[in-house]
Amino acid sequence: MSVIENPRPRVVELLNTLGDPDDAVVLAAARELDRLCKEGEGDWSKVLTPNLWWNPLARYQDRPIHPDDLVPPEFIQPDLALVMHLRALDLEPELEAELEYIEREIRRDRYILMDYVFLRAQARERGVPIPEVQRRRPRQVPDRAAAIPWSDSEDRSGGDAATEGT
Q1: Which residues does residue 112 pair with via DSSP β-bridges, in sequence order?
Q2: In whole angstroms, what is the distance from residue 68 CA to residue 20 CA?
Q3: Which of the chain's termini has less CB crowding within 10 Å, N or C?
Q4: pTM for this predicted structure
């Protein structure tokens, strides 16, 4: 995997010069920003979109993952096959690195919803069929009202037990 230089520090530096009183400095910074845009993404909407490819391993490497962020287990094997299918295609090095990272995270039981969405978007963009997954029953959400500690003077209907019957 090749190392891709992150242009963000240079872009920030150039943006900070746009308020300079010297018009020549502002114009030079604007031209440099335009050059960076055309060399990199070629489109400002792409440049301004967060890009995690600069260091995909830094995203969640040592952070604990909340269980609600994990992809349900029934998606693991179909999505692993989807990663393999995509990796068999002729891909850009950055995307290949991202898919390698996702495969590693799936195998480490750290497959998160953000990677799930990314993987399926890449498959759709390339016309790769997305496998059907038979979903299990939805997670049971506990009834929070049942967990509220009621006082002895109230019943669950909200009436005051001490005044009832008087």
Answers
A1: 70
A2: 47
A3: C
A4: 0.47
Evaluate whether 7 touches 40 at the Cβ level (below 8 Å). yes
Q: How far apart (Å, rounded) are the C-alpha atoms in residues 150 and 158?
A: 10
Write down the H helix ranges in 40-88.
44-47, 76-87
Q: Are 82 and 116 in contact (CB under 8 A)?
A: no
92 φ, ψ (degrees, to nearest 5): -65, 150
pLDDT digits (tens, 9 = 90+) for 72-128: 888 899 999 999 999 999 999 889 989 998 999 899 888 888 889 999 999 999 999
Question: CA 34 to CA 25: how far, in whole Å?
Answer: 14
Closest CA to 81 of 119, 110, 109, 53: 119
Where in the chain are the domains? 8-49, 56-125
Inter-residue contact 115 to 86 (CB < 8 Å): no
| Three-class secondary structure of residue 100 per DSSP | helix
